[in-house]
Design brief:
Shape: globular
Structural class: alpha+beta
Strand order of the largest sheet: 8-11-7-12-9-13-10
CATH topology of the largest domain: Phosphoribosyl-aminoimidazole Synthetase, Chain A, domain 2
Order of helices and strands: HEEEHEHEEEHHHEHEHHEHEHEE
CATH architecture of the largest domain: Alpha-Beta Complex
Number of strands: 13
Strand content: 15-25%
CATH superfamily of the largest domain: PurM-like C-terminal domain
CATH class of the largest domain: Alpha Beta
Distance between the termini: 30 Å
Number of domains: 2
Number of helices: 11
Bound molecules: cobalt (II) ion
Amino acid sequence: MSKLGPADLEDLIGSLGGNPEGGLRVKVVVGPGDDAGVYLIGDTAFVETVDFITPPVNDPYTFGAVSACNSLSDVYSMGGTPITALAVAAFPLCDYKTDVLKEVLRGAQSVLNTAGVALLGGHSLEDTELKFGLSVTGTVNKDKILLKSGAKEGDVIVLTKPLGIGIITTALKRRVLNDTQIEEAVKWMLTLNAAASTAALNANATSCTDVTGFGFIGHACNMLKGASVDFVIDSANMPVMDIAVALAKEGVFPGGAVKNLNFFSNRVQFSATVPEHLKYILSDPQTSGGLLLTIGKDNISTFEHSGIFYKTIGYVTKGSGILKIN
Ligand code: CO
Ligand code: CO
């Protein structure tokens, strides 16, 4: 769901304490704090989430498509299937013609068509900066909800997209890269997490989230919140786009990577061999990043046969919620 930098809006919502008076018309199964909320109406479980972003790319159609993929991701990360969406847009009337917003919407619509999701409407307001996203509703098998927590000792840890999206789009903003040089990052941002979600369900994943604004380390730490396990990561196996490695070595990474690294550092143990530039890659905020999940090691074969991109990046041990990066 939406975020306020490393301090999560979800924590604030969670601190409101819900509705103690009762009388709710739905049974809440997953409240604030996971990738999306889940509630039951009768026997049907619904997933609900909202996300909107500023443009990581220059082309409005591509922006709409990327933002749609990004917004759908939280439903997939819960093991759900998105069914309907509402658009939210902030639009600087003085800077753009409405044709631009039309292109953004066309891009989003193309992704929703692929995903089989009905766009029911939306809301826009005038703002100084262009922002676009979706509120998405999905359904999920109530007995197969993929939560952030639940990783078990002995599980393997899997990531389904390479890191470096934030670094590459930052380089575009700073005119270090041009539109052609970010095509690989755009391809990954436009890859729906639908197939990865299906593979995770088939492999009986024990926990799952999507890597977005908090970067790999932030989302891994969130999976470890209150856990009695540690994640042991082999950073040499971490999938990273080559361009992002080169940029990070030159000191090109977004401010958000620094913020994430500082914010989560007390829960991360880096071994002395991890190079400095890799720490920023591991903290790099991702737009429409991949799924990060844990799977019983005997079930990884199911994943192998799925045909999707994935890397085994580590394993789960008994512990106290520490992210250990070797
Ligand atoms: Co989200
Ligand atoms: Co998420």
